[in-house]
Amino acid sequence: MSADLSIAMVAGEASGDILAGRMLSGLRPMLTDARLYGIGGPAMAEHGFVSEYPMDKLAVRGLFEVIAHYRELKAFRDSLRDQLLSERPAAFIGVDAPDFNLDLEIDLKKAKIPTMHFVSPSIWAWRRSRIKKIARAVDHMLVIFPFEEAIYNKAGIPVTYVGHPLAEVIPMDPDQDAARDALGIDRSGRIVTILPGSRLSELKYNSRVFVETASQLVKRDPTIKFIIPMAGEAQRLYFEQLVSRQELQRLPITIMTGNSHEAIAACDAALVASGTATLEVALFKKPMVISYRMNPASWQILRLMAYQPWVGLPNVMAREFLVPELLQDRANPAGLASALWVQISNDQNRQRLRRRFVDLHHDLMRNTASQSAHAVMEMLSQHGRL
What we know:
Elements: E1 6-11, H1 14-27, E2 35-39, H2 42-45, E3 50-53, H3 63-68, H4 70-87, E4 91-95, H5 98-110, E5 115-118, H6 130-137, E6 140-143, H7 148-155, E7 159-161, H8 165-169, H9 176-183, E8 191-195, H10 200-220, E9 225-230, H11 233-242, H12 245-249, E10 253-257, H13 260-266, E11 269-273, H14 276-283, E12 288-292, H15 296-305, H16 313-318, E13 325-327, H17 333-345, H18 347-364, H19 368-382
Parallel strand pairs: 1-2, 1-4, 2-3, 4-5, 5-6, 6-7, 8-9, 8-11, 9-10, 11-12, 12-13
Helix pairs in contact: 1-19, 4-5, 5-6, 9-13, 10-11, 10-17
């Protein structure tokens, strides 16, 4: 394939980098010499992707947090738009980050640069009217949940269901003992993995409450231990600033950078901030409590705009509360500890969840790398870019 062909991509956070990395694992063998560039992370870099800007520039969550950074984000997006309009890549692929990518895609599509968006915004959860904006922004949508395909077909937007890459990466029958061995943790004893989020804004609101929950659980079972895998060194340092060193030292907590999958596989249950991590925990067939805190004003607005009662992906897919969700004011240490204790100690509940999570795993299993790569190639061909 010609070295002149280039594809620009933007992934705004760690989960998007993982998804895009799976796509590129299928696409790179088809476009061996193509230039792949834009904004991404280490999973994308493994396939020769060159990130020209730091990925964490886009990692902002919450309505008022986005507003606070609006001028900075808009200036950055405008600069990137002007660069891409000048360079005219064969295609642009926005990976998640809809608040940033959709506006960029609209401008590029107007300029006849083919656009693809990987990961549908949660229009099934809130702001359903965004489907009109998406239609203006994308030539093709790649969705990772089976129920999303019908939404785009109904709207007349070309769509491909490619499955969720995590369903391929995570084994159907995870080995808890092997995970504990890899982390140097005793095979016996109860382990709770705490996942407070990958964004600094998430850590700001969730960290202290999650650590205080650990303190409450130790009162119920003094032998219980905790693992907290952080997405990166910046997140780890920020977490340790938010939670006093004295508090961390008095609790049986192990903090690590990376190794989140080993940490989930090793645990008996997890306390997890809403987001992709809830799906990861489900695919590892682990009981969990989903929790989330955010800017209070953002919470009030988003709560009023919600279309359904669930926020955690396992619950959304099941259309019921498979696992507890304690959000905002309900996300207090006493409530979280009580809910987690049930998840840790109730074997019947554990077996029920395992059966449901195995079914969920099968529903999400596709060859994501191959299917997403073929969708990209088809779009390039349709627009005469090959």
